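User: Small ask, check this?
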Amino acid sequence: MFEGEDLFRLDVEARVEHGFCLVPETRELFGELTVYDNLVLGAYPRRSDRAFVNRTLDEVYGRFPRLAERRLQRADTLSAANARCWRSPRHDVAPRLLMLDEPSLGLAL
């Protein structure tokens, strides 16, 4: 149940439509790509809407200024997976439910 609605039988896409976002422990980043590339890939379903992608990047960089500084750095050198979920690729809004599995993974490196 989420906000009084039974979502048990919803598939992953429908859960994303409801504003759910999961950051798994494994981070599932494309490590050889840059931070910028990974963030743009997160907006893939809306890739043709350049204004959306730019707004999303501005918002993520506003919340995580170090990512802006390190946007050209390889993603596997950072612990920044949480930034992927600040905006759903299908909505112009932040997620309604953000689920983090081991959000501090990699911080001690």
Summary: The chain has a mean pLDDT of 76. The longest strand covers residues 20-23.
